[in-house]
Write a structure and sequence with these properties.
This protein is of the alpha+beta class. It folds into two domains: 119 residues, Sufe protein. Chain: A, CATH 3.90.1010.10; 75 residues, 2-Layer Sandwich (GMP Synthetase, Chain A, domain 3). It contains seven helices and six strands, in the order αβββαααααββαβ. α2 crosses α4 and α4 packs across α5. The longest helix is centred in the middle third of the chain and has 23 residues. It is globular and about 50 Å long. It starts with 7 loop residues before the first helix and ends with a strand. The model has no long low-confidence stretch (mean pLDDT 91). Bound molecules: FE2/S2 (inorganic) cluster. FE2/S2 (inorganic) cluster (FES) binds next to α2 and α5.
Length: 211
């Protein structure tokens, strides 16, 4: 089995994670899971004057999940809600000095946890309603959560999707991969898992072209 190499900063945050724990009576909280590996992270927020006054997390994941949870909470602490919403998994990863491609999704999970806790805060405390209508644009945004380890960006920006149509509950996707692409199966499985969370999609047909 290949050895996964981590930066010193990842190891340091894994060994001494910051902001671990729960917040009693949080203003926002969420638990999210990674479709890529099944691991989970919980994020808790205390918000004061539109700023994240305190933030804690609990990880049910791997070393990278703990390290990214630690760095994301450090980066978000003291930021305004709008600033925190703009934090990306790439920034978190860069702050750690990088992650092995096979671990990119761990950083995505930590940022997803932060965003879900902010969403919970906005719904609970500000009464915001997030109405999401399921259409091709919405599905494309969902697919953008899937990272293509070979290029380090999401599968939409990596131009793996050639065609997509959503009609009468049926989703058709055409994709192209290099014949020897070692990540193809992973990507296809992640797509199925992501799409299975959208109850409006009753049927999915993925066609794969190889070149
Ligand atoms: Fe699951 Fe890292 S492998 S979060």
């Amino acid at each position: 089995m290949a050895i996964v190499k981590y930066t010193e900063k990842v190891i340091e945050h894994f060994k001494n994670p910051r902001n671990v724990g729960e917040i009693e009576n949080p203003d926002g909280a969420a638990t999210v899971g990674s479709p890529a590996c099944g691991d989970q992270v919980s994020v808790f927020l205390k918000v004061n004057n539109d700023r994240i006054e305190d933030i804690k997390f609990l990880s049910y994941g791997c070393a990278s999940n703990i390290a990214t949870g630690s760095i994301v909470t450090e980066m978000a602490k003291g930021k305004s809600i709008e600033e925190a919403k703009k934090l990306t998994w790439k920034q978190a990863m860069e702050e750690l000095g990088g992650l092995p491609p096979i671990k990119f999704h761990c950083s995505v999970l930590a940022v997803d946890g932060l965003r879900a806790a902010i969403k919970d805060y906005e719904e609970r405390k500000l009464g915001k309603k997030y109405e999401e209508s399921v259409n091709e644009e919405y599905i494309l945004e969902k697919l953008k959560e899937i990272i293509y380890p070979k290029t380090g960006n999401n599968i939409v920006d990596a131009q793996l999707i050639r065609y997509m149509k959503f009609e009468d509950g049926k989703l058709t996707i055409e994709m192209s991969f290099e014949e020897t692409d070692e990540f193809k199966q992973n990507v296809l499985e992640e797509i199925k898992e992501h799409i299975s969370e959208i109850k409006e999609v009753k049927e999915i047909d993925i066609k794969v072209m190889e070149y």
